[in-house]
């Protein structure tokens, strides 16, 4: 493996792409140390800690927001919003493309239509950034409900709030530009790499929170910090990562037969191929949608229980939907929403009718099924069945951090690396990065990173 990594830097073009990607990711991480002007960062950290101690769900909500957006909004840096506004705008236009005919026509125009949609996405990103950043700055001016402004004295006017708003918006637009430069001149998907870098940047903190108690109390067998417990955590982590990779790469291959074409004395076609359908067709999106949607019941019931303090039913619902508690009601709701969004997202991204028409146009067919409507019905039935399996996989991955945190008594920050959105994103991005590096190596007659030289 060390020899293969050395080969990467022997190819000039690949070396330039890798170095440029690393430099841009370093610039992205440095932005998290540049604080937003006019904000009392010390008071902000203290207020967030107090609120987290009083309302167990707030810290988890902030952690989820930071995880999805590759941001650090809790510290209010210039990259505080992260890349989430751009992702939100992209999802909005992707969903609108299925129900809004003009966008649907643009999606079918190829490269020109894609560029136009990207232009609209950038404009929408600016609007979302302005709204979100102003809301956050205005919230800080109110002290996050503590009654004391978290903006420095003398800088609480509208002018300074607008300066901070534009600064955060510019930070997100700059991150969007970094992602596009990685796409054009680097290696891998730029936006995905930014999110992955934000997730992996939390690993040292999580690892230290696991190791520090062992250094203080010792690693005697049978204790909470024993070496046996650390070994079990390490083995569970390796098993979960290998299992997630296997399921993420899992496919259902549909056999396809191409028709024979006779042109003069030449006979072409007639080959037997396969149509791969991914088991996890929806990717990580169902978990993101489900966890984001479950934030609303928490905020609603928490507000209602604070207004009607005498209601024990509202207090019970408030506790049931707290993200930190992850009790039975929360977990069941989580799994139901994951199943719903798996089928919803698959229905949007996978069109069996169009696929059947494309197979018919290319002179291919599925043995035993007539081209056209019968083929489309068969593909839809297959996708319904494998989506059920993919949804079960996503549901299990989503609740693994809760199980690890509960059964092994691990802090949730550490347990979040055993499953959930973060692990799926990292695995998907790394697999995509390896595939793109392998494409450069194969073109120059080198073996891939995961291939044997024998």
Task: Describe the model.
The structure is a single chain. By secondary structure, the chain is mainly α. It folds into two domains: 11-215, Preprotein translocase SecY subunit; 225-453, Preprotein translocase SecY subunit (Orthogonal Bundle), CATH 1.10.3370.10. The protein has 19 helices and five strands. It has a three-stranded antiparallel sheet. A hairpin with a 2-residue loop joins strand 2 (260-263) and strand 3 (266-269). Helix 3 (41-54) packs across helix 4, helix 11 crosses helix 19 and helix 15 (328-349) packs antiparallel against helix 17. The longest helix is centred in the C-terminal third of the chain and has 35 residues, at 373-407. The chain starts with a helix and ends in an 11-residue tail after the last helix.
Order of helices and strands: HHHHHHHHHHHEEEEHHHHHEHHH
Bin the strand percentage.
5-15%
Largest sheet: 3 strands, antiparallel
CATH architecture of the largest domain: Orthogonal Bundle
Q: Give the helix tally.
A: 19
Q: Could you tell me how far the N terminus lies from the C terminus, measured between alpha carbons in angstroms?
A: 13 Å
CATH topology of the largest domain: Preprotein translocase SecY subunit
Helix content: 55-70%
Shape: globular
Oligomer state of the chains in this structure: single chain
